[in-house]
Amino acid sequence: MEPIRRLERIFALAYALFSRPVRRYFRYEWDDLSGIPGPFLLLVNHNTDLDPVFVGMASRRYLCFVASEHVARRPLAAKLLDFCFRPILHRKGRTGSDTTLNILRTIRRGVSVCLFPEGNRSFTGLTGPIPDVAGRLARRTGAPLVTFRLEGGYFTQPRWGFGLRRGRLRGRLVGVYAPERLRAMTDAEAAETVRRDLFEDAYARQEEERTAYPNKTPARGLPAALFACPRCGGMGSLRSAGDRVTCSCGFYARLDEYGALSGPDCPFGRIDRWDAWQRAALAEKRRAAGAEPLFSDEVTVQLIGPDHRPERTLRGTLAGFADGFAFDGRRLSAQEVDGAAIYSRSVLVAHTGGRHCEIRSADGADDFSALKYLYLYELIKGNT
Q1: Which of 14, 20, 198, 330 has the greatest number of beta carbons closer than 10 A?
Q2: Is the model's pLDDT at 33 over the cut of 50?
Q3: Mean pLDDT calculated for residue range 23-42
């Protein structure tokens, strides 16, 4: 049990050092979780890179977090993270049977586990899809389920944006469910309970509270999320600077400190509504497409080994077609891709032929959108 005691001491030290400055900087208020007997499974919605910090402050006790395995890319940082916090690593875009087993083992050893069941931060301000497997996991642990909702995180650190924005942030304890109650539910019912508890609509909350989240360049990077122009229909033609998003066709939209969009040709005041339109526009464009690519970008493809370290990096042109993809002219059907996801702002993660690949803009462009490739993949696979 010595490693657990070490982790608990480090967690307590981190709380003592950082809780006060974090509270002040982010105007963070939270419901205290320290009185809930453990071990338990803690499920939380996900919007910022600092969400584990915010949750840890509410817990005040050591939690084992489930983290994306990309945090293990740098060997020294990975060793330090493992020594201090011992997270459970999970590869994005995979089903995660090993992750599930590690969660169950950790809870059975008496340690509470925190999981962000969306698996991704939101691009739009709406809580993302939560699969039924979250309900199955909650029921299998034999431990209490605790649901905790973070409010204000989307505008504090928009996934597509740069830097942190000071406004207001809250952590809400939504539900505590005893194992007996979970056993009386089906997996689907438990998952629906989690979806209800963790659902957050950032724009609906803004309509009620009207909180400013100022930033000197609020729209920088927005085309990573909004890739389709409402005026000309171009995919990947939008660019950002300052508080504006523009297209070569003459379209522009302004983003203010409240997250609202405006402009003479902009039909959307909210990012989530623009996103809903561009999903439909991409589906229509795909149906009407011939043999020409729908869009393309210069990218680097990094092949990641089983030890989480990069093995080889390739550079070339990635293109999306109605029936699949191509890299430097080599066609790849969507059926050859076992899974896909995005981490960070715009790194596309794909699993194909037993290989784990990470795809990013070759020149590090702020406005590169991996999201359009993920949406196309989902359309082709029939997942949406």
Answers
A1: 198
A2: yes
A3: 96
| Rounded Cα–Cα distance for residues 328 and 198 (Å) | 42
Question: From the CB of residue 174, how many other CB atoms can be counted at a distance below 10 Å?
Answer: 18
Tokens of 330: 């080599």
Is the peptide bond prior to 39 cis by the omega test (within 30 degrees of 0)?
Answer: yes
Same-domain pairing of 14 and 119 = yes
How many Cβ atoms from other residues are within 10 Å of residue 323's Cβ? Answer: 13
- Residue-wise pLDDT for 2-25, tens only, equals 578 888 888 889 888 989 999 999
My answer on whether 273 and 204 are in the same domain is no
First to last CA, the chain: 45
> Could you tell me the sign of the dihedral formed by the alpha carbons of 289, 292, 296, 301, in that order?
positive
pLDDT higher than threshold 80 for residue 254: yes
Residues in Cβ contact with 287 at an 8 Å cutoff, skipping those fewer than 6 apart: 322
d(CA 148, CA 26): 18
The dihedral sign for the CA sequence 131, 135, 141, 146: positive
Domain-ending residue, one of 234, 264, 288: 288
- Does 117 lie in the same domain as 60? yes
252 touches 244 (CB < 8 A): yes
* Any domain includes 325: yes
Tokens of 189: 């019912």
Name which residue leads in pLDDT, 74 or 105. Answer: 105
Domain span holding position 281: 222-288
Number of domains in the chain: 3
Q: Write down the pLDDT at residue 1.
A: 46
Question: Are residues 324 and 184 part of one domain?
Answer: no
Residues 359 and 318: beta-carbon distance below 8 Å: yes
pLDDT at 11: 86
Residues 125 and 232 in one domain: no
User: 277 by DSSP, 3-state: which?
Assistant: helix
* Distance in angstroms (rounded) separating the CA atoms of residues 256 and 71: 32
Do 273 and 313 belong to one domain? no
Question: 356, 293, 342, 279: which is closest to 322 by C-alpha?
Answer: 293
Domain end (from 288, 305, 333): 288
3-state secondary structure of 220: coil
φ/ψ of 176, rounded to 5, equals -125, 120
| Domain identity same for 137 and 229 | no
